[in-house]
Amino acid sequence: MKGHGLRVYAIAYLLFLYAPILLLPLFAFNSGTIIAFPLKGFTTDWFSQMVADATLRRAFTNSMIIAVSSAVLATSLGIFAARASTRYNFPFKGGIMGLIMVPLVLPEIIVAMSLLVVLLAIGVELSIFTVILGHTLLCMPYAIAILSTAFNSLDQSLEEAAYDLGETKWSAFRLVILPLVMPGIISALLMSFTISLDEFIIAFFLAGNEPTLPTYIFSQLRFPKSVPVIMALGTVLVAVSILLLTCAEYFRRRGVARTGRTDSGGFV
Fold first, then answer.
1. Is residue 158 part of a domain?
2. Cα–Cα distance between 115 and 265 in angstroms, integer?
3. Domain tally, the chain
4. Cα 255 to Cα 178: distance, rounded to the nearest angstrom
5. C-alpha of 15 from chain center
6. Within-domain flag for 4
7. Do 191 and 146 meet the contact criterion of CB atoms below 8 Å apart?
8. 3-class DSSP state of 30
9. Are 228 and 48 in contact (CB under 8 A)?
10. 52-60 long-range CB contacts below 8 Å, 24 or more apart?
11. Angstrom distance (rounded) from CA 91 to CA 245
12. Any bridge partners for residue 42, and if so which?
């Protein structure tokens, strides 16, 4: 009886969580302009209008630049932080790593407002660059969490064997360590890209006059005629996000299998 109740609760919870997402493609292909049942008919016009919208194309370009730049920066910095935290002991190690991971627990609006105040105080003009800085700060803890797992899974005897064979620290890192943690690096890149692409609050505060996809969607929700196009865009974003997260999880599990450690969970 308890098992049956738990099963019902799990199903109800999943429906509550994912039903709105499942409704996106239904209304994206619906010919009616009002988001309501019953559906009127099948159409792909909203996707055509989405592609033809110049402002949307600009927002998409900005979001891609921001997401790629933030993912590369967050992952690159995450490699150094994860390597240092898993391989070396240094003063105030716990406190430093805790400060780096703080964005995981702070409300995003607090982070966004703090960054806005600091950037304006030092005279930095709001632009795509400031959004990249904010998203890098936000994505770094996720990248470090993934990369720390990858570095922790390494057998240190492989690195020591490279030293015994005459390799320097840099060449051992480049030739031995990096190939082994590459699945984790790819997973961190994809995760950071997805987080940056979908992030709204920091982009809303720091983008200035440059639109991103989330801020564009927010601005268009005030116009009823634009809602079906937003549904079409939301459908595309959900599909891309699911694909990227699936790839990230694939590379994470591949890294775990490659190092011979047992899988302890994932992201999807």
1. yes
2. 33
3. 1
4. 12
5. 24
6. no
7. yes
8. strand
9. no
10. 53/229, 55/211, 55/216, 56/216, 56/229, 56/233, 58/211, 59/211, 59/212, 59/213, 59/215, 59/216, 60/213
11. 36
12. 30
Q: How does DSSP classify residue 106?
A: S
What residue type is 179 in one-letter code?
A: P
Count Cβ neighbours within 10 Å for each residue of 14-48 and write b for 16 or more, e otherwise. eeeeeeeeeebbebbbbeeeeeeeeeeeeeeebbe
**CATH number, domain containing residue 72:** 1.10.3720.10
pLDDT digits (tens, 9 = 90+) for 70-129: 999 999 999 999 988 888 887 888 888 888 888 888 888 999 999 999 999 998 899 999
Task: Render pLDDT for 114-154 as a digit per residue (tens, 0 to 9).
Answer: 999 999 999 889 999 999 999 999 999 999 998 988 888 77
**Is 19 a member of any domain?**
no
Residue with tokens 């775990």: 256
Residue with tokens 């996106």: 24
Residue 207: which of 58, 49, 57, 74 has the closest Cα?
58
Cα-based torsion angle of the residue sequence 69, 74, 77, 82 in order, rounded to the nearest 10 degrees? -150
Give the Cα separation of 191 and 207 in Å (integer): 22
Which residue range is the domain that position 150 belongs to?
A: 47-259
Do 67 and 196 touch, CB atoms closer than 8 A?
yes
Contact 258, 180 (CB under 8 A): yes
1 belongs to a structural domain: no
Our measurement of the distance from residue 200's CA atom to the centroid of its chain's CA atoms, rounded to an integer in Å, reads 12
The torsion of the CA quartet 213, 215, 221, 225, rounded to 10 degrees, works out to -50
Q: Which residues contact 104 (CB under 8 A, 6 or more apart)?
A: 141, 142
